[in-house]
């Protein structure tokens, strides 16, 4: 749990209050000026696209710091990449590209195992598959979009994850949005963690089932909610629920925490609820052989009913998968709209995943996979412990490659981002609405392609900028040299 | 006081009167000879006795009250107000009323379930199985391709003519596309490793957006990473609860999911029927007078994926201007197909493209890549960059697909004869297929997806589907021609989550395409 110091909370509230007040002033003057000019609108009689305060946050708060988000790059998102510089002539409302590039250290892309750039094993095979199967199949899986690569890929993924069968779709977001409505309908209950990703929320809403939320990562509250819901039954009619499904994620991308999987599975088994695990960030990145949060926490994959994941993060590709029992996958292949109506995953992407899995498992004849896995673990633990020693407030568990650094104050968000970019380190800052209002943060994603020198440079830069911006909320641990000096003097 | 009653009981009248508080008159006419009346009268006698005791009690009580009235303070004068005896009674009544008002209203006593009871309920509850039992009909194995899904494909070692992939312009396997993809793969790797807001924006994405906008003649455009997610992210970004959407009945699943997620009021009109659309618009305008605060949209597809009809854009634009609705047009199957240079439905009907507010399209059809885009005015596109969930919360399009899209549009712009060749192929195919015995063409003759319907249906969806699948399988085995029967999600109640499916029957889908030397294989199809 994040406990925010009182003074920081006060100053954050005051900052947001000031921004809000300024925004309202400017809106008022905008209205007056528009009425004065009485500008003729082509859209007479049409309601505006955004009414009133719907886009207040975008217009008055986000646009001021727009240059911190959506920065274009001109090379592969590897450990070092080229960020395109942008300038603005109208106070950040529109940003124009220049041709100047600056080479920066990449601490923001989801490149956990370093497959983002052209890889010596994967890329030649991908180009071969491009020549053989072309860039896209242009049809749905049931209509002639199934190639030999797709069946091979599904077997490969099922073996890797440890389930009997798997199904692959072209986009991770669509996987969640299309599977949950098929399995759950009216009369069912979905209990999801309070910090679940937007795709799960959309899928749950689209299913028509009732949704209840339990406190983030708290198995005791989950048990309480389950007991209440089973005893009460469906709202108003009190009929018993048809099915109950609990949806959690492996690593939560805004907190960097691992989910408490063994306890949650114990609760689900006791109350006969089904379990849905979304391993978007954890598959390939944690665990001894990269098999995700089940391997790390020692959970048998057979205990989880449905395992879902994406290939964007650790495998350097695109697409999502669902792994479950054979009957469930057969049923989904017949009923899931992502399978019936959407274009199948492009063949080069499928080949990239197959090659990446081979490298991770060491089946390509080298030990690069094991090296990558060991390196990302070392890198994450080293970086996290160094940041904590410097006095930053870092969230997340050990072994997790995602580490958010708390900023809190809205003024510090653009300051941190811009200062780091000046020193050639590219970081990602997140604020409302992706996080709660008070808890803005900078999020670091470590990759296996970062070397020790890269990390040390990053630590220096972040420490300097942290002092400048004032985000070292905890006391720093005294350095070892100072202690030695003191001893010598004595 | 008390009551007066006549002593002529039981033979005669019986009158009860109460002097205070009104009078109750009870007249009883007895007749000497009637035994029933005698029984009744004995009952009345009993009641009479009870009544007498009650009345005597009451009279005693009232005597006491009268005594209270004569109490000295009762005649006192307080603050100039002459307190009569009745004021005491009224004060008492007020106190009683206040007391009653302050009492909590009577509720059934709440007895929450005890822990053991909840335990028992939890043990007794049996969930349904996650999936219904699989029947034989469910298992369907799609044919597996061993090559690219071009005009000729290899299935099971045989070379077949492929009429099942939406490769309208024949760009699968095109040299230029392969070159640009290879260059992009070597430079950028495969995936983009991040959402658009967090270093997932690669310069090819911005170039692709500019190229699409330039080709279509619109101010700006936005790229999505998957074809089907374009519509179901764009619609909830613009339509919120309380808005009104008029949609065609036969729109595809992506649009229906988007409509459901937007929580707006949705009115369906009959498939491709302009009168029905006009009636719906008229009804809505009449019912909702406060036009300024309500956003209204019409959602149609250019070429419907489920039926092959073409939407009459000129009439829709007229209606839209009349009734002040915004139009959302899905041009997935018509981009690169309709119009003289492939610019879509607006060119086909000669409507200026500024009149259509939002155009979306999936690029997985004519452009032979993946992903989707949405174009419109600058305001429309900018709004989606922050409020469209499929754009903000999802990784961006792989850069090699974006560069493939740019190359595909370049090829299309340089070679407009591809579009004319496609039109010729479509005409040839439709002409040849229209006199096939037992099947009739059910789609618009200009649509590149040709839907064939059974002339004599067996009136059962299952048997129809079986028959069409048998035809498709036979064609694949014997004639080496690959066509597909349309699939629908068949659940018991024909509603998918909360999404409606427009089931009008099953069709055999044949997709026309424009290969380098296509006409011969097309003629091969004819019996």
From TrEMBL, chain A:
<feature type="domain" description="Aminotransferase class I/classII large">
    <location>
        <begin position="104"/>
        <end position="462"/>
    </location>
</feature>
<dbReference type="InterPro" id="IPR015421">
    <property type="entry name" value="PyrdxlP-dep_Trfase_major"/>
</dbReference>
<dbReference type="InterPro" id="IPR001917">
    <property type="entry name" value="Aminotrans_II_pyridoxalP_BS"/>
</dbReference>
<keyword id="KW-0812">Transmembrane</keyword>
<keyword id="KW-1133">Transmembrane helix</keyword>
<dbReference type="Pfam" id="PF00155">
    <property type="entry name" value="Aminotran_1_2"/>
</dbReference>
<dbReference type="InterPro" id="IPR004839">
    <property type="entry name" value="Aminotransferase_I/II_large"/>
</dbReference>
<protein>
    <recommendedName>
        <fullName>serine C-palmitoyltransferase</fullName>
        <ecNumber>2.3.1.50</ecNumber>
    </recommendedName>
</protein>
<keyword id="KW-0808">Transferase</keyword>
<keyword id="KW-0443">Lipid metabolism</keyword>
<dbReference type="GO" id="GO:0046513">
    <property type="term" value="P:ceramide biosynthetic process"/>
</dbReference>
<feature type="transmembrane region" description="Helical">
    <location>
        <begin position="6"/>
        <end position="25"/>
    </location>
</feature>
<dbReference type="InterPro" id="IPR015422">
    <property type="entry name" value="PyrdxlP-dep_Trfase_small"/>
</dbReference>
<dbReference type="GO" id="GO:0004758">
    <property type="term" value="F:serine C-palmitoyltransferase activity"/>
</dbReference>
<keyword id="KW-0663">Pyridoxal phosphate</keyword>
<keyword id="KW-0746">Sphingolipid metabolism</keyword>
<dbReference type="GO" id="GO:0030170">
    <property type="term" value="F:pyridoxal phosphate binding"/>
</dbReference>
<dbReference type="GO" id="GO:0017059">
    <property type="term" value="C:serine palmitoyltransferase complex"/>
</dbReference>
<comment type="pathway">
    <text>Lipid metabolism; sphingolipid metabolism.</text>
</comment>
<comment type="pathway">
    <text>Sphingolipid metabolism.</text>
</comment>
<dbReference type="InterPro" id="IPR015424">
    <property type="entry name" value="PyrdxlP-dep_Trfase"/>
</dbReference>
<keyword id="KW-0472">Membrane</keyword>
TrEMBL record, chain B:
<protein>
    <recommendedName>
        <fullName>serine C-palmitoyltransferase</fullName>
        <ecNumber>2.3.1.50</ecNumber>
    </recommendedName>
</protein>
<keyword id="KW-0746">Sphingolipid metabolism</keyword>
<dbReference type="GO" id="GO:0005789">
    <property type="term" value="C:endoplasmic reticulum membrane"/>
</dbReference>
<dbReference type="InterPro" id="IPR015421">
    <property type="entry name" value="PyrdxlP-dep_Trfase_major"/>
</dbReference>
<keyword id="KW-0472">Membrane</keyword>
<dbReference type="Pfam" id="PF00155">
    <property type="entry name" value="Aminotran_1_2"/>
</dbReference>
<keyword id="KW-0663">Pyridoxal phosphate</keyword>
<dbReference type="InterPro" id="IPR004839">
    <property type="entry name" value="Aminotransferase_I/II_large"/>
</dbReference>
<dbReference type="GO" id="GO:0030170">
    <property type="term" value="F:pyridoxal phosphate binding"/>
</dbReference>
<keyword id="KW-0012">Acyltransferase</keyword>
<comment type="pathway">
    <text>Lipid metabolism; sphingolipid metabolism.</text>
</comment>
<comment type="pathway">
    <text>Sphingolipid metabolism.</text>
</comment>
<dbReference type="InterPro" id="IPR050087">
    <property type="entry name" value="AON_synthase_class-II"/>
</dbReference>
<dbReference type="GO" id="GO:0004758">
    <property type="term" value="F:serine C-palmitoyltransferase activity"/>
</dbReference>
<comment type="similarity">
    <text>Belongs to the class-II pyridoxal-phosphate-dependent aminotransferase family.</text>
</comment>
<dbReference type="InterPro" id="IPR015424">
    <property type="entry name" value="PyrdxlP-dep_Trfase"/>
</dbReference>
<dbReference type="GO" id="GO:0046513">
    <property type="term" value="P:ceramide biosynthetic process"/>
</dbReference>
<feature type="transmembrane region" description="Helical">
    <location>
        <begin position="505"/>
        <end position="526"/>
    </location>
</feature>
<dbReference type="GO" id="GO:0046512">
    <property type="term" value="P:sphingosine biosynthetic process"/>
</dbReference>
<keyword id="KW-0808">Transferase</keyword>
<keyword id="KW-0443">Lipid metabolism</keyword>
<keyword id="KW-1133">Transmembrane helix</keyword>
């Amino acid at each position: 749990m994040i406990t925010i110091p009182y003074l920081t909370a006060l100053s954050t509230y005051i900052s947001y209050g000031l921004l809000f007040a300024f925004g309202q002033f400017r809106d008022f003057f905008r209205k007056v000026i528009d009425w004065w000019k009485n500008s003729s609108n082509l859209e007479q009689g049409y309601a505006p696209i955004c009414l009133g305060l719907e886009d207040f946050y975008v217009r008055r708060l986000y646009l001021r710091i727009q240059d911190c988000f959506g920065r274009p790059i001109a090379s592969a998102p590897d450990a070092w990449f080229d960020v395109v510089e942008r300038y603005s002539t109208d106070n950040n409302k529109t940003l124009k590209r220049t041709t100047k590039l600056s080479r920066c250290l990449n601490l923001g892309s989801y490149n956990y195992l370093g497959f983002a750039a052209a890889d010596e094993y994967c890329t030649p095979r991908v180009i071969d598959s491009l020549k053989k199967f072309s860039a896209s199949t242009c049809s749905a899986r049931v209509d002639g979009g199934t190639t030999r690569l797709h069946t091979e890929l599904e077997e490969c993924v099922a073996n890797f994850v440890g389930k009997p069968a798997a199904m692959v779709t072209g986009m991770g977001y669509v996987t969640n949005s299309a599977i949950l409505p098929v399995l759950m309908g009216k009369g069912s209950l979905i209990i999801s963690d309070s910090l679940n990703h937007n795709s799960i929320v959309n899928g749950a809403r689209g299913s028509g089932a009732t949704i209840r939320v339990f406190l983030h990562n708290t198995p005791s509250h989950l048990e309480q909610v389950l007991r209440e819901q089973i005893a009460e039954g469906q709202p108003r009619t009190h009929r018993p629920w048809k099915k109950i499904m609990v949806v959690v994620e492996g690593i939560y991308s805004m907190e960097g925490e691992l989910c408490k999987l063994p306890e949650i599975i114990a609760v689900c088994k006791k109350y006969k609820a089904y379990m849905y695990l979304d391993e978007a960030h954890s598959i390939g990145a944690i665990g001894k052989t990269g098999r995700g949060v089940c391997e790390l926490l020692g959970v048998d994959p057979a205990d989880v009913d449905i395992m879902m994941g994406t290939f964007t993060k650790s495998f350097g590709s695109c697409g999502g998968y669902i792994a479950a029992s054979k009957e469930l996958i057969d049923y989904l292949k017949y009923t899931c709209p992502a399978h019936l109506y959407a274009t199948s995953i492009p063949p080069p992407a499928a080949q990239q995943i197959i090659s990446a899995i081979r490298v991770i498992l060491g089946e390509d004849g080298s030990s690069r996979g094991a090296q990558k896995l060991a390196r990302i673990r070392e890198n994450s633990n080293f970086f996290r412990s160094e940041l904590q020693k410097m006095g930053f407030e870092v969230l997340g568990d050990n072994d997790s490659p995602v580490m958010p650094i708390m900023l809190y104050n809205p003024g510090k968000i653009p300051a941190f981002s811009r200062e780091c970019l000046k020193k050639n380190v590219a970081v990602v800052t997140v604020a409302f609405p992706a996080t709660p209002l008070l808890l803005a943060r900078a999020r670091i994603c470590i990759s296996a392609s970062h070397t020790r020198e890269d990390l040390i440079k990053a630590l220096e830069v972040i420490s300097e900028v942290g002092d400048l911006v004032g985000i070292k909320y905890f006391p720093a641990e005294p350095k070892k040299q100072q202690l030695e000096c003191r001893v010598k003097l004595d | 006081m008390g009551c007066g009653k006549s002593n002529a009981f039981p033979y005669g009248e019986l009158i009860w009167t109460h002097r205070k508080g009104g009078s109750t008159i009870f007249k009883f006419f007895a007749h000497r000879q009637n035994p029933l009346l005698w029984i009744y009268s004995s009952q009345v006698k009993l009641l009479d006795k009870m009544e007498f005791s009650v009345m005597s009690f009451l009279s005693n009580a009232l005597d006491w009250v009268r005594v209270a009235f004569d109490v000295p303070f009762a005649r006192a004068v307080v603050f100039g107000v002459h307190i009569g005896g009745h004021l005491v009674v009224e004060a008492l009544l007020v106190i009683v009323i206040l007391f009653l008002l302050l009492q909590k209203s009577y509720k059934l006593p709440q007895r929450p379930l005890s822990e053991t009871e909840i335990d028992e309920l939890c043990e007794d509850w049996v969930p349904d199985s996650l999936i219904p039992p699989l029947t034989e009909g469910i298992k369907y194995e799609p044919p597996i391709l061993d090559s690219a899904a071009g005009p000729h494909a290899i299935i099971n070692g045989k070379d077949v003519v492929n009429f099942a992939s939406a490769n309208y312009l024949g760009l699968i396997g095109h040299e230029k596309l392969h070159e640009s993809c290879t260059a992009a793969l070597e430079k950028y790797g495969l995936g983009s490793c991040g959402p658009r807001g967090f270093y997932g924006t690669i310069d090819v994405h911005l170039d692709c957006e500019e190229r699409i906008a330039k080709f279509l003649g619109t101010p700006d455009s936005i790229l999505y990473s998957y074809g089907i997610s374009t519509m179901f992210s764009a619609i909830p970004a613009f339509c919120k609860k309380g808005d009104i959407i008029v949609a065609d009945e036969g729109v595809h699943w992506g649009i229906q999911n988007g409509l459901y997620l937007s929580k707006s009021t949705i009115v369906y009109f009959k498939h491709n029927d302009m009168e029905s659309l006009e009636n719906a618009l008229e009804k809505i305008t009449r019912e909702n007078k406060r036009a300024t605060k309500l956003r209204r949209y019409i959602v149609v597809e250019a070429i419907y994926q489920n039926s092959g009809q073409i939407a009459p854009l000129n009439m829709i634009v007229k209606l839209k201007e009349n009734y002040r609705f915004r139009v959302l047009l899905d041009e997935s199957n018509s981009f690169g197909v309709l119009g003289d240079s492939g610019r879509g439905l607006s060119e086909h009907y000669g409507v200026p493209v500024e009149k259509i507010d939002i155009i979306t399209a999936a690029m997985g059809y004519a452009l032979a890549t993946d992903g989707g885009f949405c174009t419109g005015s600058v305001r429309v596109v900018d709004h989606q960059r922050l409020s469209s969930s499929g754009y903000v919360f999802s990784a961006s399009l792989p850069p090699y697909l974006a560069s493939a899209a740019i190359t595909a549009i370049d090829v299309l712009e340089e070679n407009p004869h591809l579009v004319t060749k496609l039109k010729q192929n479509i005409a040839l195919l439709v002409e040849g297929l229209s006199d096939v015995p037992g099947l009739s063409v059910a789609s618009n003759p200009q649509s590149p997806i040709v839907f064939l319907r059974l002339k004599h249906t067996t009136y059962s969806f299952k048997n129809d589907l079986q028959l069409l699948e048998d035809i498709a399988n036979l064609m694949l085995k014997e004639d080496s021609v690959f066509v597909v029967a349309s699939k629908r999600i068949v659940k018991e109640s024909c509603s998918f989550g909360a999404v409606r499916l427009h089931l009008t029957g099953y069709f055999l889908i044949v997709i026309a395409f424009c290969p380098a030397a296509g006409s011969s294989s097309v003629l091969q199809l004819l019996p």
